[in-house]
Structure formats: C-alpha cells, structure tokens
Amino acid sequence: MMDWTDRHCRRFHRALSRQALLYTEMVTAAALVHGEADRLLEHDPAEYPLALQLGGSEPAQLAEAVRIASGRGFAEINLNVGCPSDRVQSGCFGAVLMERPALVADCVAAMIDASDGAEITVKCRIGVDDQVPEEVLPAFLSTVAEAGVRRVTVHARKAWLQGLSPKENREVPPLDYPLVHAMKAAFPHLHLSINGGIATLDQAEAHLADGMDGVMIGRAAYHEPWAVLAGADRRIWGQGPDAELDTVLETMRGHIARHLAAGGRLHQVTRHMLGLFAGQPGARAWRRILSETAHRPGAGLEVLDAALAGVRAQAA
C-alpha cells in the first residue's frame, strides 16, 4: 500500500473505525536509519492503534530502525516478507525473503531484541515462484516462530518474482485459503491473520468463524471504505454503533483545516476520500468534483462542501 496509506488516509479510516488496526506505508529500514525519521514516522495519536511496516533484510539495520521507532506509539512493527514489487526485490526484501527463512529469523530476532514494547510481526506470502506452498509455508512459520514471532499475516497467494507485475501478483496467482486455515490448525499458538482477495465484512466474518485470528483487508478498504469500515466495530468487535457520515465528515473537515493551515494542499487529503460513497447514489458527483477541483491552487473546504452538495443533488 505504498503511496496509499499515508497519514491522511489513516486519519480518514480511523474516523470510520475505532478498532481496526491500521498500517503505515512500508518504510525501508535504510530510509529510517539514514533518512528523515521524524518525517517518515509522522503520525497523529488519533490514528491508534497503528502498525509500522518495515522493509529490509539486514538484521542490524532493522534493529536500529526499530530502536528509532520505539517510543513513538506504534502497537506493532511489521516486517514485510510479501511485497513483490521490482524496487522491493532490488533491495533484497519483501517477498524474495520467502526464499531465505533463516535470514528472516535473524531479522525478526534482532528486531525483537531492539523493541521496547511494540510487538514484532511478519507479513508473508504462501510461497514464491516454483516453491511448493504446502512445504514452504509451514517451514517458514516454524522458523519465524522459533525466532520469537507470535503474529503473522499470510497473503494467501504465491508471488511470482519474474513475469508478473505487482498488480498481477495481487490478482493472477490463485488464492489458497484452505492452506492458510490449515496453518492455523497446525500452529494454534500463533496469531494468524489471512489476507488476499477479501473485499467485504461478510467474507471477513466467515474467515473468523472458521478459526482465523484476524483478517487483513487492503485495497477494498481503500476503494470502498464505507462498506468495509463503517460497520466493522459493531460486526467484528461487537462494539457499536456504526460510524455516522456527518461525524466522519466533520472529523475530516477539522483535519483538512489543520493541514491547509500548515501549508498543505487539499487533494493530498481528499484523494483518499474518493471512494467514500462508492456504490451509493451520488458517488459519481463526489468523485468528479473532488478529482477536478481539489488539486487547484487555493482549493479549500468549499470544495468538500460542493462535492457533498453534488452527492445530495444526484441522490435526490
């Protein structure tokens, strides 16, 4: 979710669900150690609970990144062993690490030693390229568990490191939910979440009913945030009520006003809100007005008001 789940996106999603664990964009350990940590780790406590997602393959560097991030309020620090993008592969991290479980174990062990409270977790695939998932995945889980990891999110697809684009890697390799469910039975002491192709709360509830400890929803939550997140607190955690549209919009008005006052641009926030009315009357007007006008110099809250008026007019 690089370039997607920035702090503005997370503030919007938190307005929809108080309970869902939100994830940062993936930040490389090297960027944290050698870059601008304050900028890269910037967030609002209103986003909590929040997980920081790291990419890297050097244990010492990952440990230093964890030390830098410690004390900043993250509930989890997650090592990404699932992203198949070219720039991730070139840095020897992401899904390519499925081929090097011993290295992953060294990485997470170093991260655990460096953490002052945030739980160290892993996100992985069921395998890569010609690996046999039924053999690779249990061996991988056993290895990281022995290193001290207790929470793993499994994307229920292989990643093909050559021949498929990152987008194709999210859609082309077949899903194998039964294998991931079998891993929960084989590793009852692990907190296992399932990811990949899950687009609705109905599907999430079905996986939880079948024994999974958690469900990760990515792009569907981004493109249809109301459908996925507004009712999640009540349906998944039994803690209602559902989010109210007026409250969500008022929260975002305040966030936008502060962002604009600090010199930000309107579209930096509203680009994450385009799907708010997805599947509802007025969705097209909302997207059109925000897409066409929010990027203009000087655009302010009046654009949000106009988009909302467009929704109401189209829905009438």
Overview of the structural elements:
There is one protein chain. This protein has two domains: 7-220, Aldolase class I (TIM Barrel); 245-315, Four Helix Bundle (Hemerythrin (Met), subunit A). Helix content is 47%, strand content 15%. The protein has helices spanning 7-16, 29-34, 37-40, 59-69, 86-90, 101-114, 133-146, 166-169, 177-186, 201-209, 219-223, 225-229, 232-237, 245-261, 267-270, 283-293, 301-315; strands at 22-28, 50-55, 76-81, 119-128, 151-159, 191-195, 214-216. Strands 1-2-3-4-5-6-7 form a seven-stranded parallel beta sheet. Helix 10 links the parallel strand 6 (191-195) and strand 7. Helix 4 runs parallel beside helix 6 (101-114), helix 6 runs parallel beside helix 7 and helix 16 runs antiparallel to helix 17 (301-315). The longest helix has 17 residues, at 245-261. It starts with 6 loop residues before the first helix and ends with a helix.
